[in-house]
Amino acid sequence: MSAWAAAPLWAQMLVAAVAASGIVALAGPRTVALLAAWGQRQWIRDDAPKRHQEKAGTPTMGGLLIVAGIAVAALLVGGAHPVMVFGLACMVAFGGIGLIDDVLAIRRRRNLGLRARERLTAQMVAAIALSWYASAQPWAATQVVVPWMGSVDFGRAYAGLAALLLVGFSNAVNLTDGLDGLAAGLVAIAGVGFAVLAVAAGMRPVAILAIAVAGGAAGFLRVNAHPARLIMGDVGSNALGAGLAALAILAKAEVALFVIGGVFVAEAASVFLQVAYFKSTGGKRIFRMSPLHHHFELGGWAETTVVRRFYWAGAICLLAGLLVARP
Predict the structure, then answer these.
(1) Who contacts 301 (Cβ-Cβ below 8 Å, separation ≥6)?
(2) I need a labelling partner for 73 at 20 to 30 A (CA). Which of 9, 47, 271, 307 fits?
(3) Per the confidence metrics, is the pTM higher than 0.90?
(4) How far apart are the C-alpha atoms of 179 and 306, rounded to whole Å?
(5) CA-based angle 287:255:308, to the nearest 5?
(6) DSSP 153
(7) What is the pLDDT of residues 254-290, one digit of tens each?
(8) Helices (H), the chain
(9) What DSSP assignment string belongs to 99-114?
């Protein structure tokens, strides 16, 4: 049991947030130097906006630091509660798949690691295993609350739904991670939302984990805000996306996830729509480029302007999600 178990929840959350953000922020510069020395540098896609080529060579795989900071803070304050362990296991499993993707891309000296089919297969295997385990535990209800309509009990079939959430949001955050500070800032905003929901529901371990996720993502902005000195890589975006899905599963806020994480949903949807429309029309496009943040970049918005306005959109989604999740 954690030494903080007897402290008020607000104090526990404050310590978790400060610890996670402090660990990541303070260790950030040293991590930049280490990853650069080890040659872990980002390769940029040829079809990315031209000004993104200047990001080539930036140290990557900073997600290792984010996950470490979140895990240390969450376990320090919340202890090894089964709920905490499940959430962290989701982050580590998906982060591990992202790590393999990053390492392969660096070795091949181009922005291509695992093939899409290989990555999705690995993610589905991990997601199904984690979700099947969780759906059988007493601390993981199999009901899904539908706002204003009641709840639906999926039974063991809930494992399939939970697996789709883990895979879907892991990839949605990965697609969003294309501008300096964008994904990290949006995850921090969403993490606060799940912390509020968990507090309202009396879920102490979930609240601590959620605020640790928010703190770790926010602390990463020290080295990831424009101009980024460190990129989180797939190890970070996959882990954080799975972390948000795990928080939704644990807080019984699966529907609210799509609202609180509305910017991530929009980014993923823009890619799906672009590809579908391109194939069905023989080459026509809906957006200048997908994911959605590139559309605005090519429309003349500065990178910092896109990030700032997406933050505002994320904050609006957070407030809307809290209203949706309200009993």
Answers:
(1) 309
(2) 307
(3) yes
(4) 9
(5) 45
(6) E
(7) 999 999 999 999 999 999 999 999 999 988 999 999 9
(8) 9-37, 63-78, 82-108, 116-135, 158-176, 182-200, 204-224, 233-250, 254-260, 262-281, 292-298, 303-325
(9) HHHHHHHHHHTSS--S
